[in-house]
Structure formats: C-alpha cells, structure tokens
Amino acid sequence: MRRSGIASFVLWICLTILTLLPVWWMLVVSMRPRVKLYSKSVLIDDLYWDNFLAVLNSSTFLQYLWNSMIVATSNAALVCALGLLAAFGLTRYKISGGDNVFFWLITNRMAPPAVFLLPLFLLFTKWFVFGDFMLFDTKIGLILLYCVFNLPFAIWLLKGMLDGIPLELDEAARVDGATTGQVLSHVILPLARPGLAVTFILTWIFAWNEYLFAATLTSSADARTVTTALAEYVSVTGTNWGEMAAMAFLTTLPALVVLGFVQKHIVTGLTFGALKG
Fold first, then answer.
1. Sign, Cα dihedral of 226, 82, 273, 196
2. Three-state secondary-structure class, residue 48
C-alpha cells in the first residue's frame, strides 16, 4: 500500500512537470532578448522586461484583450442562462422525442469546427446583413457563434446536474403555490449554482481560447480577440518570439483569475448528481 502511494505521488509529480513545462518555457522565452533567444539554458538568466513592456504599451493588445473579455464573458453568461432553461425543460417535462432532441443537440460537437468555416463565412458576409450592419467583424457575431457550439455542451452538463435535484422539491414548492418561474429561481437555481459555475468557467475558457473562427470572421481591431493577436507577431521578416511569448503568458492570466474565483465549485459541480439513486 505504501509503495502504491509513493508510485502515485511520483506519477503526479511527473504529470505536473509535464503540464507546467510549456508554461515555464513560455516564460523563459518572454524574458529573453533576441540575441539570447536560442540559448540552450532552460533557466531565466536575467529579468528582461522589455518584451512585456512592449506588449502592455501596445494599444492594439489592450483592445484585443478587452474584446476577448467582452466576447468570452457575454457568451458564458448567455450560454448559462439558455442552457439552464433548456436543461430545466428536458428534466422536468416529458417532451415527445426528448432523448432524440438531446442527442441531436450534442452532435454538432462531434464535427470538427473547420467543417463549418466556409458556410459560416458566407452566412456572416452574405445572409446576416441588415442594411449597413452585418455580423461579420463584430463582437456580437462571435458571441452568438460561440453560443452555437457551447450551448449543447452546457445543456449536456446542466442536464446531468438537474437530474440530481429531486422532483419532490419542485412538487413541494408547487403545493405552496409557486409558479414555474418561482420553482426555477427559488428551488433549482440555488441548488444548481455549483453546476452553473462549472459551466460558466468551461464555456468562458472555450470562448477565450478559440482562434479559428475569430481569425476568419473578424478583420479589424474592433472585433478581433487576443488569440488572433499572437499570429500578428509572425511576418515575412521573421517571428518576434519574445513578444509573442510575453503576450501568450499575459493571455493566460485572466483565465487563471476567473478559474480562481469558481475553483471551490468545480469539484462539487462536476460530481453533482453522480450518486443519484
């Protein structure tokens, strides 16, 4: 038993090192000037902050960062609200073909995103055009698009969590005269908060990290997200690895902050309903 514990400890140490090694190397590269970029050392020799200062002093980076915050947060909030309503309907009401509806909701997560790229580009530039306004190169376009891909995942996640909330609580509330809206807001919502926290952080991270659609369906700094900014450090004259690594490192910090706020709910939310029955 003791050997098994030691082996598990060593395994987790190795996995932790493998997980953190890319992050460490990214930090090392960001702290190097160009002349030392290809040094074989894996340690930070000097505290070279010029790469970080160049990124932080760039108004374009700050605009991209702000765009990402708006798109990711708005998408996560909208997905959580719609996902909760959909999961409530699927778990609390007998819908004809409900299982099939639930299955078909998940199927759009099975295809690679690149399959949808050309149809979405045509829709954004040719069909979703209202006078002078079109969804192409807008933040609202990205928010709605990410909902298409994140909402089925949110419904799947929240449905499993709502299945773990006894129906007797709904019935008891209705006996006391509660309406459907009151049952949802006063019974389901407080109990589903851990699940909503998990859904929020996962969909937020999906939207924050997405690159393909953001790079294809936006063209200006008014709508482009921070992930697309990384590609701008690659040019015909070469790649600015130091500033790219600095931006990549800074890009991970907001995700860590959001994760820290909801960390206590993650384990509870992921295991909620697992012991039903």
1. positive
2. coil
CA-CA distances (angstroms) from residue 216 to 75, 114, 117, 124, 231? 18, 11, 8, 11, 12
CA dihedral 52, 57, 59, 64 (to 10 degrees): 20
**Is the overall model pTM greater than 0.90, yes or no?**
no
At residue 134, φ and ψ (nearest 5 deg) are -145, 160
Specify the length of the chain in residues: 277
Neighbours of 112 (CB within 10 A): 8
Q: What does the alpha-carbon distance between residue 55 and residue 270 come to, in Å, rounded to a whole number?
A: 37
In whole angstroms, what is the distance from residue 229 CA to residue 26 CA? Answer: 16
What CA–CA distances, in Å, run from 149 to 45, 101, 112, 120, 163? 43, 16, 11, 12, 23
Q: Where in the chain is the domain with CATH 1.10.3720.10?
A: 49-271
- Rounded to whole angstroms, the Cα distance separating 54 from 143 reads 29
pLDDT at 277: 44
Out of 3.40.50.720, 3.40.50.620, 3.40.50.12780, 1.10.3720.10, the CATH code matching 49-271 is 1.10.3720.10
Quickly state the pLDDT bin for 217 (edges 50, 70, 90).
very high
